[in-house]
């Protein structure tokens, strides 16, 4: 049931204030001072003492894992590696019983992810799942896990499953950080509070849908697009590019903004839309200069900015505003306009948004 929406993807984009709320419901105390993830309580000693966390996933779930890497390292101070399941399983990786593996999968059925965790389990690692489909194969293979509770996702392009995965990883990073003492209580409480504000902030972003549709109209005939971000917004750039390519068949690439000058900058001309995720955080000044570099080469800049940003407003061709937030929360907000833009570009190009060519919702073959 599309609930009145033209496509499941659009419905699922709009569900995100609710689905994210469902992800943290019952897991954050009413007074917003504690996070409790029941599914991983038994493995908390393993997690807090882990020498290393290896996150394995594919596609969009792998992008969520990259966001997790930034958050775990920042707040829990545990080294993290993020691996494509398909590469990890075939390269004879070094795994020890001190390693904790976190497998992320919406469907819980992705063949490569499943095979990778079976292999790591044999070598003695502790396996934690972050899955959406209850009772699917991956949760049955893991020692512990957290369901995302995003609700059934039908659109092949993952939207609400991604934001729920990121929400779980954010909660885990904060909870482990607090337990390890790397995150002090005052900041911990502030971050929890920030997380609980996400649904209402996404509601605000969704109100810009028509404005974003207008931008989509202008660039629907592009043949290439570049997405740039820094820090935990670099994975959002990758995700924005994947959303565009999988449903609109426009070639798109995501890059860490500073890597641009090591190659991709050669592509920039007056026909190249460049989406820059540039909310206010510790690398803000740097990303402003990246925007100037694109403009100096006549590129078209579509910037996702913090509400009220005058500096970027004066530089970019278009700005899409998101409400002010703590930088750890920004991935959850900034991905929303990118999902909406991809949706409308695909729609205007006459593509089958919910069922893009050559793709399946769960990839159960390797
Ligand atoms: O079910 P999974 O999360 O394991 O699926 C992984 C990828 O196949 C999936 O995220 C794919 O990249 C999506 N089509 C992205 O929108």
UniProtKB/TrEMBL annotation:
It comes from the Bacteria. GO terms for cellular component: cytosol. GO terms for biological process: carbohydrate metabolic process; fructose 6-phosphate metabolic process; protein N-linked glycosylation; UDP-N-acetylglucosamine metabolic process. It is found in: Cytoplasm. Signal peptide: none annotated. It catalyses: D-fructose 6-phosphate + L-glutamine = D-glucosamine 6-phosphate + L-glutamate. Its EC number is 2.6.1.16. GO terms for molecular function: carbohydrate derivative binding; glutamine-fructose-6-phosphate transaminase (isomerizing) activity. Keywords: Aminotransferase, Cytoplasm, Glutamine amidotransferase, Repeat, Transferase. Residues 43-182, 215-356 form the SIS domain. The keyword Transferase applies. Catalyzes the first step in hexosamine metabolism, converting fructose-6P into glucosamine-6P using glutamine as a nitrogen source. This is Glutamine--fructose-6-phosphate aminotransferase [isomerizing]. It comes from Plebeiibacterium sediminum. The chain holds residues 246 to 611 of 611 of the full protein.
């Amino acid at each position: 049931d599309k609930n009145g929406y033209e496509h499941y993807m659009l419905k699922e984009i709009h569900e995100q204030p609710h689905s994210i709320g469902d992800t943290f419901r019952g897991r954050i105390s009413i007074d917003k001072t504690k996070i409790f993830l029941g599914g991983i309580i038994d493995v908390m000693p393993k997690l807090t003492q882990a020498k290393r966390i290896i996150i394995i996933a594919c596609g969009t779930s792998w992008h969520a894992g990259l966001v997790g890497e930034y958050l775990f390292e920042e707040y829990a101070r545990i080294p993290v590696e993020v691996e494509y399941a398909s590469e990890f399983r075939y390269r004879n990786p070094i795994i020890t019983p001190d390693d904790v593996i976190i497998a992320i999968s919406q469907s819980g059925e992705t063949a490569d992810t499943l095979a990778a965790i079976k292999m790591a389990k044999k070598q003695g690692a502790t396996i934690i799942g972050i899955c959406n489909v209850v009772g699917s194969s991956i949760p049955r293979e893991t020692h512990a896990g957290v369901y995302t509770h995003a609700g059934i996702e039908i659109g092949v392009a993952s939207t609400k499953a991604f934001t729920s995965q990121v929400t779980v990883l954010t909660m885990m990073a904060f909870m482990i950080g607090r337990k390890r003492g790397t995150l002090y209580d005052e900041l911990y409480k502030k971050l929890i509070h920030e997380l609980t504000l996400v649904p209402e902030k996404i509601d605000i972003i969704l109100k810009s849908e028509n404005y974003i549709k207008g931008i989509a109209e202008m660039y629907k005939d592009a043949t290439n697009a570049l997405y740039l971000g820094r820090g935990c917004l670099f994975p959002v750039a990758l995700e924005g590019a994947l959303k565009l390519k999988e449903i609109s068949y426009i070639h798109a690439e995501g890059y860490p903004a500073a890597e641009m000058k090591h190659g991709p900058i050669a592509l920039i001309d007056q026909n190249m839309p460049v989406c820059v995720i540039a909310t206010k955080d510790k690398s803000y000044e740097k990303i402003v200069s990246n925007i100037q570099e694109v403009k100096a080469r006549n590129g078209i800049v579509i910037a996702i900015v913090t509400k009220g940003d005058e500096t970027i407003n004066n530089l970019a061709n278009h700005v899409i505003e998101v409400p002010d937030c703590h930088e750890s929360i920004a991935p959850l907000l900034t991905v929303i306009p990118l999902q909406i833009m991809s949706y409308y570009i695909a729609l205007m190009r006459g593509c089958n948004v919910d069922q893009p060519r050559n793709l399946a919702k769960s990839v159960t073959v390797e």
